[in-house]
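Pasting two entries for a bug report.
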Amino acid sequence: MSAPNAAEREVLDQLQLERIVADTSALIRARSENPGETEAAAVEVLSSLCERAGAQVTLTEVAPGRHNLLAELGSGDGPALLFLGHSDVVPAGAGWLGDPFEPRLVDGMLIGRGAVDMKGGLAAVVAAMSAVHARHPQVRLALLCTVDEEDTATGALRYIADAPTARELDAAGDPAPYSACIVAEPTGLDTVVACRGATNFIITLRGAAAHAGNPADGASAIAAAAIAVQTIEDDARRIAQGAAAVPGLIGTGSWNVGMIAGGHGTSIVAEECTLYVDRRVLPDEEPERILEDLLARIRSSIAGSGMLNGERITVTGTLDMAMPGFLTPPESTLPATAVQAVADAGGTSSIGGWSAACEGGFIARHHEVPVVILGPGEVKTQAHQPEERVRVDDLLTAARAYALIALRLAGASR
């Protein structure tokens, strides 16, 4: 389709920019910093917006004050189109020109913590679901909004723990709940079909304490940790050279040592040191195997380093968090529909990959459905920083695109 037809225009005409901006603003005012706060206020606001649209809302407690939200619309048969989002935002931090939780409209930009990541996307999704449902109540739509996406993904993990997998449903002869998933994270309205996963490892090195005046009596876990960090850096260079790359989409995996903790004082040989490590993974990589390989590399490096009493060092590791990536064939129906829908909504969209991570990989793996990330605003230049902002025109374009995708995938555009 080169332009919305009459049936589609009836749906699009219901979308009001003022309403989407007001809903985004209400969500921004509902503080949900993570870590530091809960998502209770934001989920309460989102629940009321979904109920206003006519949705059946189910809340699932993940932790006190922290509830996943599932909003469902549509009376028809068959699987629903799932929209995915999260209710938490990163801490506001310093550097704002005003209250980060009192939205400001400046030169066509809505400013506030969460404006782009991702309360603007949530408001656009609710607007699209409401508009489609008003004209086509048979079209099945759902919004899953999780807690704790910005930290350890406990909301997504709780969801997949409760929801039957695609294979379990197939074995039982039950229908699949969803046909596809759109993650409303900020992509500049590009259609992201490939996304790296995020894996967090905790690496613990243990040695032996001793008086700093006699270091030969001990084995320094900090010295061993320095070797471990260098080993990780060496492996980062190795994989950056192109091993297991997905050319043009998400490239290679990557490593980052984000935090180190160890030692008791300057006059004590450190008996323990812990590394907190981020590894971005490709869709076909297995975190458990990566951890096993990393531990072997570190042990080998320490053994060959010649460090004082290196044989007394032990190295262990745990998998703290694993958020899988995904890859949806760019030529398949969902990406093609999304790209055309954005164009017909008044924007532009190209197929691409994402170097960040999102919870779409959980849905792709668990439900075995195609996933794309598509949302208003720019993750690199606008998210996770002071004066976070989103262009309000992009909120409307996103809502229009979501509505068109829903109509066209459901065959309701006639």
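Entry 2 (this is the one that rendered wrong in the viewer):
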Amino acid sequence: MPALAVNVDHVATLRQARQGSEPDPVTAAHLAEMAGARAIIVHLREDRRHIQDRDVALLRQLVKTRLHLEMAATSEMGRLARGIAPDLVCLVPEKRQELTTEGGLACQGRETELSDYIAPLREAGIAISLFIDPDPAQVEAAAAIGTDYIEIHTGAYSDAPTPAKRQQEFARVTQAISQGQDLGLKVNLGHGLNYENVWAFAKTPGVSEYSIGHSIMSRAIMVGMREAVAEMARIVGGFAD
């Protein structure tokens, strides 16, 4: 059964808007786990625009499922990750001016660099994921780097302006899933997935985890965190293995 991983970054975004103490992403993570989340995701950005170091440290102590840390492949983040020891590190591209991660990590041509970067993380017992576009060359490069997982960037699928374009992007994603499996990788999906567009993957085998944040947090404002997570967990829990 595929798992639901819930990203709580946007809880921290709301907190940081007032530079206060609420709402607390740590509390949100606890409620998400109670409602069926099988992992909690946070993105510790270099500019600390939402999630703070304090949040990650507390989450490491309190998360009872799995803690996934999204981060850029920098020396600072590598040191932090080794000290915190999340269950999984997902390497993502990062631009300070972007509102959210805009695309996949460029792996092709950086195989040696990224392989060297993840080596000490793996030695620390941390599983590795690479957030990549559904591009055959990037999937091939990710396998050569030696990652455990790839997370396929579903943004182009989620934001497709027409049904024909969405079907085209869906095909790209499903092809990347199959390619990743053939190369011995575990495959996750994430970015822009919501309560409607995620249904297209209901009969798509080979997805280990669906990483969803913004849609769940948006719904939680209306119906509460536990109900919003539980609803998505029920959806994902009925999908093909």
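Dev reply: Rendering is fixed now. As a check, the viewer should reflect this: The chain has a mean pLDDT of 95.
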